[in-house]
Amino acid sequence: MGGSVLPSAPEPCPLLLVDGHNLLWGATFGFPAEIRSRDKTRLLTGVFAFFALLRVAIREDLTDQPEVIVVFDGQYGGSDRKEVDPTYKAQRPTDPAALAPIQFLPDVKRGLDQHGIVWTELDHAEADDVIATLVRITPPPREIVVMSRDRDYYQLVTDRVRVLNTKMHPGKRYIGPADVFTRHQVTPAQWADFRALTGDPADNIPGIHGIGAKTAATLLADGFTLDDLASSDRLDTGRGRLVREQLGLARKWRDMIRLNHELDVPVTPAGQRSQLLPAPAEIVEGLGLW
């Protein structure tokens, strides 16, 4: 007696998590043309380019229309890391020209609202940590794509979580576990340890002086972490001695680099495809900015 075959559950759509400030900065300073209102009185580059780059990424780099959640840095994001080390990101310029993208933020958020794209921010959290939490609460096997040029996200990479860096050449924009290892000779799980040793200039984390990427990867070979190094003989000779002398600092930097997966976030992935974005000119028109 034959039994009926139940249909398999449909594949969930991909989840695209967008680092909003990262995209806005790239849109404002990296777009090839300046965009202004028709009367030339308003600069619109950041708004126009934000939606242009997001639309192109969805259309050309994802094989299926995703659910999109844009995450922005909170006003006091990073304050917890600054309590650990006051020099965290202290090198970043704060003059009006450097902060020009901020002027576009309200209109970008309005545009996202008008087109049904979910966005979120927590006052005291960086986008990295919110995205890390959203990755944690999204059950497998759902595919997750993190759109950002920030390599801190490499520590989130797994077989189902990839980083999309649209500044890279086509064919090389996706970073999976094998790509992290091929390029840096460490695994995503070792990323925070690796960057603690080499430093992260973008976040003003100096790393251990004299330890470059090659030496760091050699010290961390075979899946070692900073904790493994402490009880090994790899720090007894050569440049390893530099690490032993500053191992406490390296551990502090590693803890700062590690993303927080345990935030109380105000949004939850719904599992439904987001609306298709229209052309950026149409979005700007709808915002009444032309």
Protein described:
By secondary structure, the protein is of the alpha/beta class. The chain has two domains: 15-184 and 260-286, Rossmann fold, CATH 3.40.50; 188-257, 5' to 3' exonuclease, C-terminal subdomain (DNA polymerase, domain 1, Orthogonal Bundle). It contains twelve helices and six strands. Strands 3-2-1-4-5-6 form a six-stranded mixed β-sheet, with helices on both faces. The radius of gyration is 21 Å and the shape is globular. The model has no long low-confidence stretch (mean pLDDT 95).
Task: List strands and helices in order, with pairings.
Blueprint lengths: L14 E5 H11 L14 H17 L5 E6 L6 H6 L20 H10 L3 E4 L5 H11 L6 E4 L13 E4 L9 E2 L1 H8 L6 H8 L14 H7 L6 H5 L9 H6 L1 H11 L22 H7 L4
Parallel strand pairs: 1-2, 1-4, 2-3, 4-5
Antiparallel strand pairs: 5-6
Helix pairs in contact: 1-2, 2-12, 7-11
GO molecular function: 5'-3' exonuclease activity; 5'-flap endonuclease activity; DNA binding
Function: 5'-3' exonuclease acting preferentially on double-stranded DNA.
Pfam families: 5_3_exonuc (PF01367), 5_3_exonuc_N (PF02739)
